[in-house]
Prior knowledge:
single chain, about 55% helix
Amino acid sequence: xxxxxxxxxxxxxVILWGLLFSFDQDNFLYSDCFYPSLQTWFAELSQGYSIxxxxxxxxxxxxxxFLLDMEVDPNQRNRWGETALQSLMxxxxxxxxxxxxxxxxxxxxxxNSSNTAGITPVHIAAxxxxxxxxKLLIDFGGNLNSIDSQGNTPVHFASANPDEEMIQLVVxxxxxxxxxxxxxxxxxxxxxxxxxxxxxxxxxxxGADLDIQDFSGNTxxxxxxxxxxxxxxxxxISNNCDWSIKNNQNLTAGDIAEKYLTYSKNFSLxxxxxxxxDQN
Length: 280
């Protein structure tokens, strides 16, 4: 048995001892909270969570620092492929955990480590509301063009996220705004579909393809019409999108409006915007 194995066993004993004596020492055997807590703890360990995972998920910064000082592997994964950093970010509101996340990254946690769904910490941050943590991940080499199992990048996540500061940060640090997912959808499609006007404009301003088509042949303008969003239609038209592109059903955005939106309260307005574009 080498010294690392001995250290691990001693570490587990120390932590178990601490768990026991965090309860009423005279009555812990009869405590209603002791057995469920310990059972939960062991259940999580059986799912591949390390002690570091549990400490991070609990928000216990001092324990995380202690474990990292003991050279516990910061990139150990649970059964879902998550490091302690990913579990922390997926488990709770992590916006106030800047110092703990800094500790994990400084200890060598990979900001681009993906779980079984291909999600990285950068994906999670892009869908959140902490620009500070996103900046930190980028500073430690976080890749804004990494793709998950569905082909989505952090730019997709930020495009669906209503946070305007997040999309600005992501766009300004991303190398490619036109990566499409497995359905052929670009971040611009997602921004349009979620009605995020600021996002649409900043994506276009930074080089997003205005006329990119998904695997159904639909452009962002098609999506805006499907969403019955006249303001979004107008925004895309004002940025000189090609309104004449046909999808795989041989339908332009105008055709979709005429075929599917005649009973929509926004039909007349959308139709007028498209007619005006045609005349110009």
